[in-house]
């Protein structure tokens, strides 16, 4: 599998730039000039504001978009709980229903599921916090094999960071359309409605749902103004709408990890024009500009951060999205794989393709995952340690054909019942296979023969 999608055809149009103010209209003249909410919007459209932050949030944090649509989003019947027991059971982040354990965990590849659509193919693996308080995050797997029909879905709980591992997602959002493939990511903000169809069959992947704040580019500090993920490489959709006189739609809402549904007699995808800075976007991971040491020792893995969601404590994230793409290692006199460590952050890793260079034993596979929770010790397995300790330290390309990633969080995350037991993917001997074979190499100079 290629690690860049530069040359893949894409049927949709995009605007470029991260966190930029965009404006777009599918019909010329649909955007009002000089006024957001005129007495009569052009073409008989309704003006509506979509706010991702409080109205009074500081200007540099404020997220809002004005949309001009055929009918307001409020025009639907009452929501009622849909499949309450089964959906809530597999999605809840309620503390007493999560398993908080210090063990290192690793999962075999998660199954595809051709029987369900996007909405019903979401499963919480781990999480922390409370969406009602806008605190914390949820880590999910998705697996689906059916198109959504005349339906739309949104999460009131948080922003979805979608990381495909298998298959193509055709995502029709209110603000335009996005095609998403493995080695690309997409963020769909809280409240934005969308529908997912599957042009190439079943899909599978990972999601980090952010209950708190929004994803942003990390500060670069001494790195300077370039490298890592560049703002110009992010893509936002352009306005595209359906014009249906009478059409029955079902609208799903993920609200406090419970699934609700409502009926409406018109399409949700009727926004003819919009302007603002609150919108879905995608990014090709092949465009990430990796940096590293060119002398000795390791820079911290934070240099691989694509997106971050800061907490209230400076320098500490609710969630970081970190990738480990193909890259050159040139450091002299240095043990090159990640060092053994215990971290105050929780680390959930997934593998999109290939082999991760710090796990050579074959237990960490594409569509699988691992979790090293707060202060759980981890590092290279015994095979990786022995190989790296005795390798010739010449310039070396690692990760060819591979893409691993990490959701890192300051939260201690609990594992769901589905993630720990129901999915039946946990490797019971992960610890024993990875670190028990490590050999003692210490030679005590003070010990008599």
From TrEMBL:
SUPFAM superfamilies found in the cross-reference section: RmlC-like cupins
Chloroplast listed as a keyword: no
GO biological process: L-phenylalanine catabolic process; L-tyrosine catabolic process
Keywords: Dioxygenase, Iron, Metal-binding, Oxidoreductase, Phenylalanine catabolism, Tyrosine catabolism
Pathway assigned to this chain's UniProt record: Amino-acid degradation; L-phenylalanine degradation; acetoacetate and fumarate from L-phenylalanine: step 4/6
Originating organism: Penicillium egyptiacum
Residues at which homogentisate binds: 356, 378
Binding site residues for Fe cation: 341, 347, 378
GO cellular component term of the entry, any: cytoplasm
Domain Homogentisate 1,2-dioxygenase C-terminal, chain residue ranges per copy: 287-442
Record keyword Iron present: yes
Domain Homogentisate 1,2-dioxygenase N-terminal: 13-285
List of catalytic residues: 298
Family in the record: Belongs to the homogentisate dioxygenase family.
Enzyme Commission number(s): 1.13.11.5
InterPro entries the record matches: HgmA_C (IPR046451), HgmA_N (IPR046452), Homogentis_dOase (IPR005708), RmlC-like_jellyroll (IPR014710), RmlC_Cupin_sf (IPR011051)
Protein name: homogentisate 1,2-dioxygenase
Enzyme kind, highest EC tier: oxidoreductase
Cofactor(s) needed: Fe cation
Domain of life of the native organism: Eukaryota
NCBIfam families on file: hmgA
GO molecular function, one term: metal ion binding
